[in-house]
Write a structure and sequence with these properties.
This protein is of the alpha+beta class and 266 residues long. It contains 7 helices and 10 strands. It has 2 domains: 4-122, N-terminal domain of MutM-like DNA repair proteins; 136-258, Helicase, Ruva Protein, domain 3, CATH 1.10.8. The chain has helices at residues 4-18, 84-87, 119-122, 136-145, 152-157, 167-177, 190-206, and strands at residues 23-28, 43-49, 52-57, 61-66, 72-76, 90-96, 101-105, 109-114, 242-244, 256-258. The strands form 3 sheets. Strands 1-6-7-5 form a 4-stranded antiparallel sheet, covered by helices on one side. Strand 6 and strand 7 form a beta hairpin. Helix 6 crosses helix 7. The longest helix is centred in the C-terminal third of the chain and has 17 residues, at 190-206. The chain binds zinc ion.
Length: 266
């Protein structure tokens, strides 16, 4: 599932092909603005907040998209198209004057807003460690303001508290802090939790080769401490890693992994 660091890297890729380019043709095929032609619009820049992607145009408009579980972007070279099998799933098409085309495929969120009103679509989000306006103190305040009975994993996944963490990072941050993901958030060190989460997400995009590697070890099957490792020995202590099918109070029904020895329930 795409997390904030995946979307951050995606934005960098789109920047390289689209920013500064005038679109010779393009349109939105989904959402309230479906049918809107982008012909002649110039892409000014891309920005991200958590898992949200913002594409700003010289028309004073911003395209807001979100990948959720199923969305993706593909960039094709001049004269090329996406495969016929996915053509029907294209939700955004942007062909540049240089000839390459960006295709937003299966995007569940496609919205056009005035750039000055972007807060309407991302204003609810908590601080994002990958943004220049990252505010660790505010993130800590939001963790401490959460219902103290909620689990640490659920609070880490709450984008209004901290923007950008997905299931992988939420699980790994719990391991790195030595807390069970089911620990009530009111009993953990909020500042340390925020520090570890921010450090992990940043290293993921800044350290070459370390994308979504939490152990520092890029060998296959050893890149994560617990995520995806159910039934296998903990890389730190050898205890069998456990998995649970869902985080309580999380409608996304994600799986949660943990080492019962390294992460005792407090
Ligand atoms: Zn362990």
């Amino acid at each position: 599932m795409p997390e904030g660091d995946s979307v951050f890297r995606l934005a960098a890729r789109l920047r390289g092909s689209l920013d500064g380019q005038r679109l010779t043709s393009g349109e939105l095929r989904s959402g309230g603005a479906a049918g809107t032609s982008l012909d002649g619009w110039r892409v000014v820049e891309h920005d991200t907040h958590g898992k949200h992607l913002l594409t700003r145009f010289d028309t004073g408009r911003t395209l807001h998209t979100h990948l959720r579980m199923q969305g993706s972007w593909t960039i094709t070279r001049p004269g090329r198209r996406v495969p016929a099998a996915v053509a029907g799933e294209v939700r955004v098409r942007m062909q540049t004057e240089a000839g390459s085309t960006a295709w937003g495929v299966s995007l569940p969120v496609v919205e056009l807003v005035d750039t000055r009103d972007e807060r309407d679509v991302v204003g609810h989000l908590g601080p994002d460690p990958l943004r220049d306006d990252w505010d660790a103190a505010e993130a800590r305040r939001r963790v401490e303001a959460a219902d103290p009975a909620r689990t640490v994993a659920a609070v880490l996944l709450d984008q209004r508290v901290l923007a950008g963490l997905g299931n992988l990072w939420a699980n790994e941050v719990c391991f790195l802090r030595g807390v069970s993901p089911f620990t009530p958030v009111g009993s953990v060190d909020a500042a340390a939790l925020v520090r570890v989460a921010a450090r992990g997400l940043r290293a993921s995009v800044r350290v070459p080769g370390m994308f979504q590697t939490t152990t520092g070890n890029t060998r296959r099957g050893e890149r994560h401490w617990v995520a995806g490792r159910a039934g296998r020995p903990c890389l730190r202590c050898g205890t069998t890693v456990l998995v649970r099918a869902e985080v309580p109070d999380d409608p996304g029904q994600r799986r949660t992994w943990w080492c019962p020895s390294c992460q005792p329930l407090r």
